[in-house]
Design brief:
Layout (H helix, E strand, L loop, with lengths): L2 H29 L11 H23 L7 H31 L8 H31 L9
Helix pairs in contact: 1-2, 1-4, 3-4
Length: about 150
């Protein structure tokens, strides 16, 4: 397994775990009707921001460990193709999630606070969706075989 594949596997694991944890937290908050935006207690937002920074820091550390200058031509082509797929899925995720924000309000419109809070979180989730789909597309192109360095 070359360095590009190792980086792809690590990115896949971190982004997949982060999206699963984020989905479970969103579901828990939604089911229990917990008010996240609370003026009296702003610590919730600060803790969420700190927790959201941890996966991004891990991905930056991975990119520093497995540098792109060690990639060969095949790895560069695979990364270019998987990035295109990631852009499409990330944009689709943002469109669907933005449309959902209009559906959660019974009058068909949203307040500015929804866009302020959920908009920034949606961009973060869209980035993780892009990382996850890019990793999946790259792993499919590598053939899921950990020993195929010379193909």
């Amino acid at each position: 397994m070359n360095k590009a594949q190792k980086r792809t596997w690590w990115t896949f694991a971190i982004s997949g775990a982060t999206l699963l944890i984020s989905a479970s937290v969103i579901l828990y908050v939604w089911v229990n009707q917990i008010k996240i935006i609370d003026v009296e207690r702003p610590m919730r937002i600060r803790l969420m921001g700190l927790a959201n920074a941890i996966p991004l820091i891990l991905i930056v550390l991975i990119s520093r460990r497995f540098r792109k200058k060690d990639y060969d031509e095949r790895d560069t082509i695979i990364e270019r193709k998987s990035s295109g797929i990631a852009y499409i899925t990330s944009f689709t995720f943002l469109v669907v999630a933005g449309y959902y924000l209009f559906l959660i309000n019974p009058r068909g419109s949203t307040r500015n606070i929804y866009w302020a809070m959920h908009g920034s979180y949606l961009v973060y989730l869209a980035y993780l969706v892009a990382l996850l789909t890019s990793s999946i597309a790259a792993l499919i192109q590598y053939g899921w075989d950990p020993d195929n360095d010379a193909k």
